[in-house]
Structure of 2TM domain-containing protein:
Amino acid sequence: MNHSDHNKERLAEAKRQVKRIKLFYIHLVGYLVVVALVLLNFYIMDKGLHEKAITWVNTTTLVGWTIFIFIHYWTVFKGRFLFKKEWEDRKIKEYLNKNTEEETKMWE
């Protein structure tokens, strides 16, 4: 495998990962909208004949979707949590480079 094939393969994998992350965030937004609607439903629900059934459906929807969103998160991010060591190192380098650029621009 030559160098350009390796780069093309890495680019394709990076695009697939970005697409997976994008789909996860779309899934998360949909989940948050549904959670807000279910909570609103709990708030405005009247005491009545079907209260237990509606509560059961809403609760199982929340629990089930929460499990699925966690599984989706785990498959996309491979169990990584939000702030890994590499992320911290990259941000530190960005701020150091930013400060260095600002210092050089200030005296020019």
